[in-house]
Amino acid sequence: MENKVENNSCPFTTTIALIGGRWKSIILFLLSDHTRCFGEIAARMPSISRKVLSEQLKELEADGLIHREKFKEIPPRVEYSLTDLGQSLRPILKDLAIWGQKMVLDTVK
Amino acid sequence: MENKVENNSCPFTTTIALIGGRWKSIILFLLSDHTRCFGEIAARMPSISRKVLSEQLKELEADGLIHREKFKEIPPRVEYSLTDLGQSLRPILKDLAIWGQKMVLDTVK
DNA sequence: TCCATTAGTCACATTTAGGTTACCACTATT
DNA sequence: AATAGTGGTAACCTAAATGTGACTAATGGA
């Protein structure tokens, strides 16, 4: 949150800094109607490495978009979910997905 | 358009490939209610280099989001505008901007 | 003659994002 | 004593994105 937002006042730069990149929008979308643990997210995103997934989750948490809850169990379990701020992105994520879906369909035709 | 869309079927990957990155959403937004020439865009985006601006415009054109029209004048003039596909992004761009704007305001407070 | 102007390009350097592989802690189960 | 299962981390590497500064063509005007 801190650095990414404060040093600029362009709303696009701000938004893209928080949800841009190859993976963040997908992660947020996966969490948009379920709390999920690390392994579940990884299973639904076969092409992201665990390292990068871990990094992205950390950034999303630092930016206040997702919440991380670690349970003291063996084997360990960690649940990720959207914060209120993250929830506020849901309509935008949906529109991005719809737009992309149309592109895919039009291209195939 | 071609490569970026065809090799995957994830709508987020598609959309982010076309409008992600630090500059593309800003460029599209600047064109969303005006046709503008290269220098005008550059003037409104002081922190992008001319080289990168030129590259981004080429990609946006190749992806079918913007239209480029070169006039045979001296000094040369080139006008950029949104295509219909580009226009279809306007509501999304607006929402991204509004969301980012809120972030900036909340952070300053 | 020389400068200004527009819309770039070229060669090069640097920064950032993302990827690969191996490894760890902790406990239950076999 | 070895293995499985979860959620990671560390060291290292590559490719993509972005930046810098110099340069160009073509012509009108001082």
Radius of gyration of chain A: 15 Å
**What helical percentage do the residues of chain A reach?**
55-70%
User: What integer is the average pLDDT of chain A?
Assistant: 92
Continuous helix count of chain A: 7
* CATH class bucket of chain A: Mainly Alpha
Shape of chain A: globular
Domain tally of chain A: 1
Chain pair with largest interface: A-B, 33 and 34 residues
CATH architecture of chain A: Orthogonal Bundle
- Largest sheet report of chain A: 3 strands, antiparallel
Determine the structural class of chain A based on helices, strands and strand pairing: alpha+beta
Pfam families (chains A, B): HxlR
Domain HTH hxlR-type (chains A, B): 10-108
InterPro entries (chains A, B): ArsR-like_HTH, HTH_ArsR_DNA-bd_dom, HTH_HxlR, WH-like_DNA-bd_sf, WH_DNA-bd_sf
GO molecular function (chains A, B): DNA binding; DNA-binding transcription factor activity
